[in-house]
Amino acid sequence: xxxxxxxxxxxxxxxxxxxxxxxxxxxxxxxxxxxxxxxxxxxxxxxxxxxxxxxxxxxxxxxxxxxxxxxxxxxxxxxxxxxxxxxxxxxxxxxxxxxxxxxxxxxxxxxxxxxxxxxxxxxxxxxxxxxxxxxxxxxxxxxxxxxxxxxxxxxxxxxxxxxxxxxxxxxxxxxxxxxxxxxxxxxxxxxxxxxxxxxxxxxxxxxxxxxxxxxxxxxxxxxxxxxxxxxxxxxxxxx
Length: 239
Prior knowledge:
Blueprint: E1 4-11, H1 15-20, E2 32-36, H2 44-57, E3 60-65, H3 82-102, E4 107-112, H4 114-119, H5 124-137, E5 143-145, H6 150-157, E6 162-167, H7 191-201, E7 207-210, H8 217-230, E8 234-235
Parallel strand pairs: 1-2, 1-7, 1-8, 2-3, 3-4, 5-6, 6-7
């Protein structure tokens, strides 16, 4: 079983969880933080504070780009012209890069959020728009996505590095896709079940995710990391 895997979490989404310390306590448990760029949640102060804490903990910073949909938390599909989507994604990456730079941080990868993440797995127009944004950004930041994602195939064809991702806290359907959130059991809340799923994914993915808004996220992450390390798996940022 020994191998290496990254452990990532979505942050910069909730001022309430940051103020309470819930999200802050996740940083010592992970190796990468997907920081919301302000489109579907968060604000500049929260983004900056999240990046500063990530730097303090030696955690890699990724741009979590998404639809500009605060009401739906970026989990509703939005039809955007490819040019508009590419511009939006590039703007979000640049915005996070600027804020992270103010606290000594560096954006090292891009992970789409919510509906955009799932849309570009099969939609050639939106997938190509995201890849176009990465190419326009210039530094060829790696793109994070699920195995089999169309966007990842397009990125590879264009020379953009890709990172295969699995989920410790989400149930999978038989076809390898995630169970929709509106179905019972879509989110795994049992730490043992999450840890077992994470362990089963080692060797097939480069990074494992636990969502910060999952119930008991801190307990889930602690158990996932503990089981991985107990089994001899090295937990380290993919970058």
